[in-house]
């Protein structure tokens, strides 16, 4: 750069001298020398410029290399620090391993001693096991002999059963052939039976219609019978109750007449005058029922009610109930007969 600056200064001086020479119009010989020097100086300038560019490129490349090397140095320094840390860690690890090795060696000594004692115990136990196993082997040999005998017996039994099985297989094959024959016959029978069933179904349909008609008729008849029985029982009850009332009235009439016969007309009139009633009212007072009579009538009414309920239950019950119904009605008829006889005897007396 200093050479460049010197050359540029010389060029400027040369240019200034050329300008002053042109003005003074000096001889042409020295001006030619000046031009040659100018050209030389320009060539030098160019060369120096080229060198400067080359050097600048080299400087840049060197700077880049320096930066790369610095970065490399930093990386290496970081790596060195890491390696130092690793080394410290490994030293600590080695120390720990040494201490563990010592502890393990001590443990190994104790374990070896325990192992020796255990080996002695194991040897003793194995010897005892061997003796026990010998005895067990002997017993197993005896069992094996027994088992072989049983095996030979079972083999004989197996052969026998095998022969029986073969015979049974033959029977089975025969039975299967028979089964096939019977199945064929069954299919034929089923076809004939289905045809017959279709015919029977038609006949049964017609018969069902007739049966339904008959059922309706029988239901109507049963309803009529039920109504008849209910009406008959009611009529019987009413007739019995009527007979009872008639008997009571007849009895009362007899008692009143007996009282009238025992009492004279004058005593009756006297009693009526005392009570301040007429003779007819006195007769009505004499005709009043006793408490026993009212209780008796209540009992009879309850019995009639129970009898009607019993007949209703019989009619609602399942078949057969005709004998029970007949007994109940006969009972009531007998009661009516007795009441008729009683009433007729009372009427004869009166």
Automatic annotation (TrEMBL):
Ranges annotated as biased composition (Basic and acidic residues): 1-17
Region (Disordered): 1-33
Classification via InterPro entries: CNTLN (IPR038810)
Any one GO biological process: centriole-centriole cohesion
One Gene Ontology CC term in the entry: centriole
Protein name from the UniProt record: CNTLN protein
Species of the source: Cochlearius cochlearius (Boat-billed heron)
